[in-house]
Amino acid sequence: MTEATLICRANRLSRVAILVGAVAAPAAADEITVFAAASMANAMAEIEERFEASSGHDVVVALAGSSVLARQIQQGAPADIFISANPGWMDELEQDGLLKPGTRFDLLNNSLVLVAPGRDAEEVDISPDLELAGLLGEGRLAMALVEAVPAGIYGKAALENLGLWPNVAAQVAQSDNVRAALAFVATGEAPFGIVYATDAVAEDAVSVVGTFPPDSHSPIVYPAANLANRDVPAETEFLDYLRGPEARAAFERHGFVVVPH
């Protein structure tokens, strides 16, 4: 075999090795930032860990009130995915052209509950006949911001529809997000609070003393969407994962109802 033949064969083998290496190499990992409603904290911690393990991508989850997150997105925050605790803030971002078209979908449902400190608080019937002001006494009713944060918006609407708001409005202690309102109750700083059912599941130091009738407020819906600022494969993979069986099981473990797709 001539030297020229050996060189030619070596070149062919080298090209084959390069091609094989290219096929075998794993896809590059992406890092994505997910802005999610504070009420999703426990579920998102589990989903973040499982998605990273199965995909190889890195996920950074930022949690806050939906209003805070939406405003940050409007101001140019480098988020990739947004999951809101109500459609209103997602509608606003969509009107601003900040969502990638065709990626928005309804992910979860939740319910609204009245909580009290301790594990054995006495249950009440949440109806127009509830003497909520009397139950509060000199104490405060912990709620998320009633004009901005979804849990507070839903809570105020429910109290108004039941005719209870005028008697308790002056005793409402508002916080930046629903988890902060939950903490007020868990630490005994407030005798009652209005939070999501999923928040109550996440906190051992409170009891659910009543569930607000579904017709006392608009349906609690969590929409999710890909933001329009950039496009990497991990964004689509993560949204697909949220609709898959592993994420569904995680959400249900934390008390959410997953919207069928």
TrEMBL record:
Where, in this chain's numbering, is molybdate bound? 39, 66, 151, 178, 196
Keywords of this protein's UniProt record, alphabetized? Metal-binding, Molybdenum, Signal
Out of the domains of life, which is the source? Bacteria
Q: Which GO terms describe its cellular component?
A: outer membrane-bounded periplasmic space
User: GO biological process annotations for this chain's record?
Assistant: molybdate ion transport
Coiled-coil positions: none
**Which Gene3D superfamilies does UniProt cross-reference here?**
Periplasmic binding protein-like II
Signal peptide range? 1-29
One molecular function GO term is: metal ion binding
Task: Fetch the InterPro entries from UniProt.
Answer: ModA, ModA/WtpA
Spans traversing the lipid bilayer? none
Family note? Belongs to the bacterial solute-binding protein ModA family.
Assembly and interactions? The complex is composed of two ATP-binding proteins (ModC), two transmembrane proteins (ModB) and a solute-binding protein (ModA).
PANTHER family, per the entry: MOLYBDATE-BINDING PERIPLASMIC PROTEIN, MOLYBDATE-BINDING PROTEIN MODA
What is the protein name given in its UniProt record? Molybdate-binding periplasmic protein
Q: What is the originating organism of this protein? A: Jannaschia seosinensis
Query: What lineage does the source organism belong to?
Result: Bacteria, Pseudomonadati, Pseudomonadota, Alphaproteobacteria, Rhodobacterales
